[in-house]
Design brief:
The chain is α/β, with parallel strands linked by helices. It is built from 12 helices and 9 strands. The longest helix is centred in the C-terminal third of the chain and has 19 residues. The structure holds phosphoric acid mono(formamide)ester and norvaline.
Length: 309
C-alpha cells in the first residue's frame, strides 16, 4: 500500500513507472467505451471513497472513471454531510470507518494538516486530490500530457509557468526536480514561490528560474502553463491580487515571445489570466490535458493499491 500525497515525497522512478503504465493503458483503450473495464479488471471489487471539502468537476469525474475502468467502484462524499464536517466526529474515528468500508481514500481539502492526519489514521491508501500546498495528481498527469504532445521526455523541454505561486505550481516545482526539467516562473515579486519551496529545490541541487517580467519568463518556452490567479478559498483581497497580475495575462502577444512550437496548458477552471484566443486556439491542448487525468489517475490508483505492473 502506498499513499500519493506530495510529488516531492515519491521516488522519481515510481513517478516514471506510473507515466509508463498510463501510456500503455491509454493506448489499449482506444476501442473501449467510457465504462468498459480494462482487461484483467485489476481493481475488481475495490471501493475508492472520495471526499470533497471544495468544489471539483474534473478531479471527481476522472477518479470516478479511473476506478470504474479498473473494475472497481467509487463513492463520493461532501465532508459537510458527515459528522466530521459538523465537528461531531474525530478524524481518527472517521478514518477508522473509511478504512473498514473502503479500500482507498481520495481527499480534496483546505487543510494540509488534515491530509497528514488522515494519513496517520487510515489503514488504506490516501490520495491528495488538492490541498493548499499541492495538486499532485494534476501535475503528474500534466507531465504525461506534455510528453504525449511534444513526443519528447520532459527533461528535454523548457517549461514555463505564468501565474500565482499556488498548489499547482508547488507540485510543478516538485515535478521539475523529480523529472529534471527546466522551469521558468513568471509572476509579480509579491507572489513568488515561498522560501521553503525554493530551499527544497536548492537542497536537491536543482534550480528554478523566477522572473517578474512575463516576456522574459516565456522566452524560449516549449510549454506555458497557467492557472487561476485566485484559487479556491484564497483568502486575499481578490481585486488587488488580480490587479497585481495585470502584466501577466497570456495572450497571443505574450505567446509570440515563446518558441514557435510552444503549447499552452491549463489545469482548469480558468479565469481572466488567459485570453480566449489563446485558450481556444491551436496551441492550446487543455481538453486533452483534462482527459488525460483519467488515464494517469488509473495508474496512480494501481500504484497505491500495489498493483502497478
Ligand atoms: N483541475 C482540477 O483539479 O479541476 P477540478 O477543480 O474541477 O477538479
Ligand atoms: N489552484 C487552483 C487549482 C484548481 C484546480 C485552486 O486551488 O483553486
Amino acid at each position: 500500500m502506498k499513499h500519493f500525497i506530495n510529488l516531492k515525497d515519491i521516488p522519481a522512478k515510481d513517478l516514471r513507472k506510473i507515466i509508463i503504465d498510463a501510456k500503455k493503458r491509454k493506448s489499449l483503450r482506444k476501442k473501449l467505451s467510457t465504462l468498459e473495464v480494462d482487461k484483467g479488471a485489476p481493481l475488481k471489487g475495490k471501493l475508492l471513497i472520495q471526499m470533497f471539502e471544495k468544489s471539483s468537476l474534473r478531479t471527481r469525474l476522472s477518479f470516478h472513471l479511473a476506478i470504474k475502468q479498473l473494475g472497481g467502484g467509487t463513492l463520493t462524499l461532501r465532508s459537510n454531510e458527515l459528522h466530521l464536517g459538523q465537528g461531531g466526529e474525530s478524524i481518527a474515528d472517521t478514518a477508522k470507518i473509511l478504512s473498514t468500508y473502503g479500500d482507498g481514500f481520495m481527499l480534496r481539502t483546505d487543510s494540509d494538516k488534515k491530509v497528514e492526519n488522515f494519513e496517520k489514521y487510515l489503514s488504506i491508501p490516501v490520495i491528495n486530490g488538492l490541498s493548499p500546498s499541492s495538486h499532485p495528481t494534476q501535475v503528474l498527469s500534466d507531465v504525461f500530457t506534455v510528453e504525449e504532445i511534444m513526443k519528447k521526455p520532459i527533461s528535454n523541454l523548457n517549461i514555463c509557468w505564468i501565474g500565482d505561486s499556488n498548489n499547482v505550481l508547488a507540485s510543478l516545482i516538485a515535478a521539475s526536480v523529480k523529472f529534471s526539467f527546466k522551469l521558468s516562473i513568471g509572476c509579480p515579486k509579491k507572489f513568488e514561490p515561498r522560501k521553503g519551496v525554493r530551499a527544497w529545490v536548492k537542497k536537491n541541487n536543482k534550480k528554478i528560474y523566477i522572473y517578474n517580467d512575463a516576456k522574459k519568463a516565456v522566452s524560449n518556452a516549449d510549454v506555458i502553463f497557467s492557472d487561476k490567479v485566485i484559487s479556491l478559498n484564497d483568502k486575499v483581497n481578490k481585486k488587488k491580487k488580480i490587479k497585481s497580475f495585470k502584466n501577466f495575462k497570456i495572450d497571443k502577444k505574450l505567446m509570440s515571445y515563446a518558441k514557435k512550437s510552444c503549447i499552452f496548458l491549463h489545469c482548469l477552471p480558468r479565469g481572466d489570466e488567459v485570453s480566449d484566443d489563446v485558450f481556444l486556439g491551436k496551441k492550446s491542448h487543455v481538453w486533452q490535458q483534462a482527459l488525460n487525468r483519467v488515464h494517469v489517475q488509473k495508474s496512480i490508483l494501481l500504484y497505491c493499491f500495489g498493483k502497478l505492473r
